[in-house]
Amino acid sequence: ALGPRARSFSLLRASSSPDTSFDVIVIGGGHAGCEAAAAAARTGAKTALVTQKLETVGELSCNPSIGGIGKGHLVREIDALGGLMGQVADDAGIHFRVLNRRKGPAVRGPRAQMDRDLYKESMQSLLADYPNLHLVQASAQDFLLDEATSASSKFGSSFSGQDSSGGASSNGLLGASSASNSQEQMIQSTLSEGSSHQARIRGVVVEKDDQTQQELYAHSVVVTTGTFLRGVLMMGHDRYAGGRHLRDSEQVEAPSVGLAKTLERFNFPLGRLKTGTPARVNGKTIDWDILTIQPSEVPAQPFSHILQFNGQQPPNVAAGNLINCYQTATNEETHKLVMDYEHTLPVYDGMEGKGNGPRYCPSIYKKVQRFPEREGHNCFLEPEGLNTDLVYPNGMSGPYPPEVQEKILRTMKGMGAVEIVRPGYDVEYDFVNPQALTHTLETKQIAGLYLAGQICGTTGYEEAGAQGIIAGANAGRAGAAQARGDKPPLPMVLGRDEAYIGVLIDDLVTRGTQEPYRMFTSRAEYRISLRADNADLRLTRKATEYGLVTDEERISALDAREFLIDDKIDKLRKFELKVTEWVERGGSEHMGGSSMIKKKGQKKTAEEMLNMPFVTLKEVEDIVTQVQKEQQQEAEASESTDEPKDAPEIMGSSPSSIYDTVEASIKYSSYVQRQHKDMESWRKAQGLRIPPDLQYTRDNLPTLSGEELEKLGTIRPGTFAEASQISGFSPPALGYLYHYV
Question: What class does CATH assign to 21-144+198-277+429-546?
Fold first, then answer.
């Protein structure tokens, strides 16, 4: 009745080679593991991906969606670095929207609903294309370590004489002249922190399907265990060991215990976090007709830069294979049941039994508990694929006993007769405080050991994939260089001013986290520059220097986009009209109103007009094209006269591949300069004292988030230097607090 269950076959096949020596071993086949393995393989490293079940590689364990506010930026950056997630999301996407579309380009977040089976198949298909990526179906039990002597980092110890590929450099730092100061500091910090370790990695011990153990050897190991590190699953008062349930099944995937014990032995700072997934329900038992529909946007904005540059749509959009999502909401009856059955919820290991879950993706119980004044909370009903009736009720996680979960769901509009196919559950697991890592995501205690994903305290597919690509790139470059006997390469580190990935990793390794970390645009002090539309311009050139991008199509697309953008901005800069003519052709409301009409004799360029608040690039281009066509007609008419005029070239409209970037680059140019000045001003004043009696309230500091106000009020930092070390307190918030004080 529900269509096909999770497909049990795999496009991946375990390596038949008896070889047990590799440059890099990646443990785990989730989002971090897939990106890490592919990144390491792209650097030329002989890579092994070790996972319990090849059929689950690329599985969407929780929600069937990719992207969103902040998260969509990460996916675009992963794609710009040659990663997999953007391409796979386009292949499997069945519903596309851009969140925050009414706001500025810097905070717009592309998001798409996935067909779970298509996503997994696409990911496995891409991984199967790497000839130097070997697949091992086994469970990682422990590390192989050389503890005889202290081990130095496998990265170069100075900038001079080395470029990003480990060879001679003509321009010093990273072989690139535009590296930022913050990035230099991160790299120097990485090199100094990694100068001495307690041990060096030399491989892993795995247990195969036949229960026999085998040693696999490698120069670098990337651990991406997700929720499996001493994972415990919970539903009501039932507790049982596991990392997750197999999709649509009661079968549990075993936790990783041996790795956790070794990390503990080396004094890694371990803690416990939890996350949850809601029940999956039968779509045939939902009354769709009375719910609010949310159709997909058409045309869709792809995640893939190449797809967007070529003017192509994701395959399911092009074929018309799209779904609708629907909106319902909780109510007073729902909230009463949520609190009445509080006593049936699990008792966790963390936070004195309460559990330490994601602040920004809370359970329905946490929502009702925190906001008792709210009359309702939205729930989005998201179909899980084209060929299934399973539906994901986004926003309704809560590990109550199954019969209680069904009672709660049936109180909502359209859900009165809903049937649960698979109950929701929570998982509590170990994580390593990421302050134990360098900016390459290599551990400070064990040389050659890298961590990425939820083991570092993050939540979300996109955050995991972002860490995976950096850990995999550094592990691959270091491992391959060691195998060749080359000098250690310089680490690949992204600065906070270069990428949201840089913000993510810097937040983690410098401040750590005590709760699941989620990316938001507000965490980036340079968010006006770090837009989803320009990720390739910021990162792809750098990715080629580090061996992450080698395909000619992506490089050619970048070259062409850079040329077209620069050419368009140059033409807008050179075209000018009298102010009165801009107003006459575009309308006084859009073109500056009465204040512009007063400037009768003045001229303004098309670039200057586009800088005005409500003027769009299309409006400016339409006027320019109109004027140029008139000038062309005049030139044709003048050919028979004694004074022929030159015919101008018609500018025309910007294609979709450059439109957003051209418009944002011009509109944000002055704001970018001001943003850099604001951040520099508070950095120079980090010793400034904060009044001890300052009241951290919404009235005093209206732009700060609830999390930031809560942490300031609890910790009460004495200086801005102390405030800057608070996990979850963003640099933009520091700038605002500085101006307030």
Answer: alpha beta
pLDDT digits (tens, 9 = 90+) for 529-553: 999 999 999 999 999 999 999 999 9
Q: Which two tokens stand for residue 606?
A: 């098309």
8 Å CB contact between 173 and 161: no
Least confident of 58-62, 291-295, 356-360, 675-679: 675-679
Q: What is the dihedral of CA 563, 568, 574, 578, to 10 degrees?
A: 180
C-alpha span between 558 and 567 (Å, rounded) = 14
Extended beta strands in 181-277, E state: 199-208, 213-223, 232-235, 238-241, 244-245, 252-253, 270-277
- State the Cα–Cα distance between residues 235 and 183, nearest whole angstrom: 45
Predicted pLDDT at 188: 65
| Amino acid 725: pLDDT | 81
Residue 339 Rama label (left phi>0; alpha psi -120 to 50; beta):
alpha
pLDDT average, residue stretch 575-594: 81
Measured in whole angstroms, the distance separating CA 405 from the mean position of its chain's CA atoms is 31
Instruction: Write down the pLDDT at residue 641.
Output: 74
Q: Burial, 211: exposed, middle or buried (Cβ in 10 Å; 0-12, 13-18, 19+)?
A: exposed
Domain residue extents for the chain: 21-144+198-277+429-546, 280-297+318-426, 552-638+648-664, 686-740
CB 275 within 8 A of CB 63: no
Calculate ∠ Cα 491-497-500, nearest 5°.
80
End-to-end CA distance of the chain: 62
Tokens matching residue 741? 């004080």
CA distances from residue 493 to 180, 441, 456, 506, 598 in whole angstroms, order as listed: 11, 10, 17, 10, 52
Dist. CA 541–CA 558, nearest whole Å: 8
117 alpha-carbon distance from chain centroid? 21
Q: Strand, coil or helix: what is 412?
A: coil
pLDDT for 660-670, tens place per residue? 999 999 999 88
Give domain 280-297+318-426's CATH number out of 3.90.1300.10, 3.90.550.10, 2.40.30.260, 2.40.50.140: 2.40.30.260
C-beta separation of 21 from 217 below 8 A: yes
Under the phi-then-psi rule, with left for phi > 0, alpha for psi from -120 to 50, and beta for the rest, what region is 297? beta
Alpha-carbon distances of 575 from 55, 568, 612, 625, rounded to whole Å: 58, 11, 16, 11
3-state secondary structure of 544: helix
Which residues sit opposite 681 in a β-bridge?
none
Give the other-Cβ count within 10 Å of 653's Cβ.
12
The pLDDT of residue 499 is 96
When computed from its CA atoms, the radius of gyration of the chain, rounded to whole angstroms, is 27
732: pLDDT confidence band, cut at 50, 70 and 90?
Answer: confident
The CATH T-level fold of domain 686-740 is DNA polymerase; domain 1 (1.10.150)
Structure tokens at 106: 């810097």
pLDDT score for 522: 87
Instruction: Check: CB of residue 67 under 8 Å from CB of residue 303.
Output: yes
Cβ atoms of 213 and 205 within 8 Å: the answer is yes
Model pTM? 0.89
276 forms bridges with which residues in the sheet? 426
User: What gap in Å lies between CA 173 and CA 570, rounded to an integer?
Assistant: 31
Q: Burial, 715: exposed, middle or buried (Cβ in 10 Å; 0-12, 13-18, 19+)?
A: middle
Tokens 């002249």 locate to: 177
The Cα 662–Cα 35 span in angstroms is 30
Residue 166 has pLDDT above 50, yes or no: no
**Under a CB-based contact definition with an 8 Å cutoff, are residues 397 and 278 in contact?**
yes
Q: What is the pLDDT of residue 12?
A: 73
